[in-house]
Structure formats: structure tokens, C-alpha cells
Amino acid sequence: MNRRTLLRLGGATLATLGLGTLAAGVAIQPRRIYRRPARADDATLPEHLPGGAGKRVVVVGGGLAGLTAAITLAERGFSVTLFEQASHLGGKVGGWTVRALGEEFPIEHGFHGFFAQYYNLREVLADAGALGDLAPSAGYPVIFGDRPAERFGTTTSIFPLNLLSVITQSETLRFADFTEPSEGLLDLMRFDPAVTFDQFDGVDFATFARERRIPTSMVDTVLRPFGDTTLNRIERLSAAEALRFFHFYFMGNPEGLAFDYTRRDSMAAIVDPLAARLRALGGTIRTSTPVRRVDAEGKRVVGVTVEGGGAPRDIELQTIATVPVADVPATGWAEVRDDAGMPIFVSRSVEPSTALNGFTALDGQCTHKGCPVGRDAATGGFRCPCHGGTFSATGAVTGGPPPRALKTLTAVEGDGVVTIARSVERQEEQIPADWCVVACEVRGLKKLMAASQYVGSAALAVQVAALGESDPYVVLRVWLDKPVRADRSAFATTSRFKYVDSIAVYSHYQEPFVAWAARTGGAVVELHAYAIAPEEMAALDVIQAAMCTEMTRIYPELAGATILHHEVQLQDDFSRFAPGDWTMRPTTVTSIPNLLLAGDHVKLDVVAHLMEAACVSGRLAANAILSAEGLREVRIPTVDPKGPLA
Ligand code: FES
């Protein structure tokens, strides 16, 4: 072989290798794909039920999962009825109106970021004409309590430049931090649900990061702040779930970390358009209608039983507590608990018109979503910690989302004891159904399935019982008499503060808060404490005060500001993703053929989190029904199921 031939051969080999490397590089780039339908002949199937097929679907729960399932099925010709126990739809995307400073303001469950890779949610919103309220955030800022702020989200999504650019953009991260091999970072790039959960679901992410040698600076600067947004502390978050989460937001999507927020409150921007779409498709929505149980015959659901409606069958008086007369103060309230641990307030004199023998009793179960209310020392009435509902001393609603006054109970004195009884109206209505989608939050699902005796399925009983909720979280919104600097981000994640995990300046981007701030020179700010560790749990007013102090550390221009009004929520209803949970989590399809589950607690075979997980679960539930009825599934777009090095 002469020299010229050798050079030609070498050049060709190098070119081939280069092209091969390029091709391999292209092949591992994050991409958007579609989930494979259940049936191989899916593309040939009709989309709609034949007219007059009369298939009835009941959807229990009006959050994103339930609304998505209901809309998808109504689009295909099913007769859909959606039941929601609260007076408003939306679940954790829901909202309500509050009175503050002589005006009415819409308030929501909390700030939500709408990421670019929320493909399914965006499609559902687009069909409802609800994308117009979304506005892009300028990157993803993280404000630290002990180091300079960072701004992510403007990085490229090309692998591995996406990882490198996180480091180059960072004020804190150094390439020198990454000279030691880190199995944990490789595990992230090798994410594969079929392998990762077997390997790492048994350990929490904090331990995983330590043992798999992820640089501490990477954990502190990037992974902990973002991991906390799962509303599961990384000390309690399954490492496999965390890897899945980081894959979804960092490594596996071609859009990067870009997100939008809504220019109007979540009801106006998101929930109302979805409800309008469902109604326009012929669906029925019944709010304030709790579902008591799912009814089955054999191994098949035949419908649900809901409260109210129909003819009253009977009213029964059930004794729920007793309290010695001597324990009821001359003024004010005595507090006792019923068998379920819910508070009951007993007074001698507060509401004489309803008192028997001079005693009054109020049911301490909030009429919004059933949280236990507590005494409000400031007003002499009652306050519900969950979403800030307030009641007068007689139990009348004075603010927040509760639709009705606290229920008055029967209180009768005899032999030195006050006996308290609840009248149970056995007024209920049977709703027949061919299909049932249960899309409640974890607590509601557990309660409903227990009342339904798990529809006779031992497997479902075990799976539902194993579901849990993460640590409590607080959402605090404050109206202030000082402005926030104009260059502050609409939303920022925070880290290294005791309570505050994120801060949103509503007066920078959402009406009517923008107008209020312009008129008054003040600001409206929302603070989140995502998941409060048991050792940091304290009285709500103590946490609230600490969060306000931290707010002035985050945005020092707010030092000395007066809080003109505040709304606070303390809740514990986010799904738990703890070590070991994955195996037990139920899937959309259950052992009961015509009973489907939806919600972000459901185990999905595509990678999605938070609102997108809820939406995907709703589409999966609908697809199971469509497929069983011989109809074409809705296409489900998703991020790449595996990491670039899997
Ligand atoms: Fe929501 Fe009480 S449960 S305000």
C-alpha cells in the first residue's frame, strides 16, 4: 500500500468515525416522542363512539387529572359527568376570591410554572383556548441564603453542553468540583425507568447523592433547590424518583428549563376555560357534590353514590361526643374531638337561637375541603389553616373558599353532661355508569376506596393503602405598603432559608395585583415553604413571621414594609414519593376492568411530573377506555424515556 493510499484510507476512517460520532451524538439528544398505543391496529380505529352508543362515564375529582380525562372522553362522544366535592374545580390549580383592603382579589392554591415540556397539558389548554394567558419567565433564578444568586433556564438543551453550561453559568460551580468521578451524575445520564427504580428506589436522594459522590456544590446549588420543588424533601424523596424528576426537567427534554406563568389567576386562566370546554362538549359538572362510594356488582363498577340529590331517605341523629358541663366555660368555647379526631366546639351562650338548654355546638370540619378549623384569637371566630377560610363566632363564613357556614350540631344537657349529636342526612343519589375514573387526591382516593370496600379488590386495597402524602407546606401571600424592585423576577426558587423555598411577585405580572400595586405603591408577594420537616414544624403564626423575615433577606428593599393583609394556607395534600413507594403505587388501569385511576400519585409508564403527570394520567385513563371501546387513543407526547447514556 503506497503512502497516498494509506492517507486516503486514514482520511476515510476518520471521516467515518467523525460521522459516526456525530450520528451517535444526534441519536442521544433529548427529543419529544409519542407513547405507543395499547393496540397495534390503533391507527385504523375510529375516533368517535357511534351516535347513540350512550356510554356513560363518571369522573370523580375536578383537578387537572379529572378534567383532562373528562374532556378527552367527552370529545369522543361519551356521556361524561364530573363530580367535585369542593365548590370550585381545579384541585391544586384551583382558586377562590378573598376580600382584602376593601376589595376583592382572586387567589390561588399557589404559584404554578408551566414548563415547555408539559406537552399534554399544553395541548389540552390549547384546545380550550387557554394558552393566551401564559407568559414566558426570564430564565429560572435561584436565590441563596448564603451565596450569590444563580439564573438557570437559559442553557442550551444539547447534551452534554446542557450540563456544561449549568457549570459555566453558575457563580458557584467550578469545573474543579467535577474532577473526581461521580457515579451519581452518571446514574442521572443513564436514567432508565426499567433499571433505575430497581437500583435506587430503596434509598433517599440525599443519601444517594452522598454515597454516589455527586459533588456537594452540585447538590447545594442545583439538585436540592430543584429537588425541593417536588414538595418532597430530598431526605425523604426516593433517589429513583429524583433521577426521574431531574431527567424530566434537565436532561430528557429538548426545551430546557424554560417555563411560563399565567397573567391571570389560575381559575380565569386555566380552570374556567377547561370547564367551559367540557360543558361545550356536552359534559356535566357537579361541584359541591361529594361521592360517597363506588358501587359494584361482582367485579364491575355499576355507578357511584353521591351526596344530595334524589329524595331524602331518612335523617338519623348520631351521638359523636360528650363533654362534662363543668368543662364548658361561661363564655367562649370548649373544644372536644369526635371519633375521627375532628374538632367540635361547645359553648353555653354564643348562638342562643340555635341552642338547646343553653348549649351550642359547632362542627369543626371546614365546609370547603373538610380540614379541621381552629379558634381565631384575633376575631373570636374560627380559621381553617388549609386555605385560609374564616368563620365568625357563630360559624358564618367571613372569608376564603368555604361555601357554607360551619354546621350546627345538636347539643343536649343531661346529668351534668352535654351530649353532642350530628344529624346525618341519608340523602343520596345513585349515578349509573359504564366507566368510572377516580381522579381524587391521595386522601380522597383512600377515603372513597375504603367506603367502597375497595370494590372487592385486595390488590387495589393494598396499593391504595400504601399511598401517602408528603410533609406539610405553607403558602403565604402578603399585601405590602412598599414596592419590590422592578428588576426582580416574577418567580424565583430560593435555597438555604429555613422556610421559604420560592418567592413570586404577583404585583409584577398578574392582574389585578399589578394594578393594585401601581395605584398604591405597594406590592403583593407570595412565599412558599415547600415541605416542612417535622423538627421545623411550629405554630402557623410562628412560621408565617419567620417567612416574612426571610422575605426581607431575599428582597432587602422590603425591610420595614408593613403587611397590610395576608392570606395563609397550611396543607399536607401533595403526593409522597418516598423510598419504596414506587413498587406499590397503583397504575391507571386497576384490577377492576371498568375502574380507572388518575392523578399525580398514579404510576405512569411515561416520564412526567407535577401538573403534566396529572394531565398524562387523565389521558391514560381515557385511553384505556377508548381502547377497550375499540376507539383510537389520544396520542400522548412525552420526553425521551431514557437518559442520553442509558
Ligand atoms: Fe379549604 Fe378549609 S379546607 S379553607
Shape designation: globular
Strand runs, count: 32
* Straight-line distance between termini: 41 Å
Round the Cα radius of gyration to an integer and report it. Answer: 27 Å
Return residue spans where pLDDT drops below 50 for at least 5 consecutive residues.
1-20, 352-356
Strand order of the largest sheet: 9-8-27-28-29-26-30
Strand content: 15-25%
Can you list the ligands bound to this structure? FE2/S2 (inorganic) cluster
Instruction: Please give the count of helices.
Output: 17
Oligomer: single chain
Helix fraction by DSSP (H/I, runs of at least 4)? 25-40%
What's the pLDDT, averaged over the residues? Answer: 89
Main sheet overview: 7 strands, mixed
Class based on secondary structure composition and strand pairing: alpha+beta
List the main descriptive attributes of the protein structure presented here.
646 residues; disordered N terminus; single chain; 6-stranded antiparallel β-sheet; 17 helices; Polyamine Oxidase, Chain A, domain 2; 29% helix; Rieske Iron-sulfur Protein; alpha+beta; binds FE2/S2 (inorganic) cluster; 7-stranded mixed β-sheet
Mind explaining what this structure looks like?
The chain is built from 17 helices and 32 strands. The model is unreliable at 1-20 and 352-356 (pLDDT under 50). Helices cover 29% and strands 25% of the residues. By secondary structure, the chain is an alpha+beta fold. α6 (193-200) runs antiparallel to α9 (239-251). Residues 366, 368-369, 371, 384, 386-387, 389, 400-402 line the site of FE2/S2 (inorganic) cluster (FES).
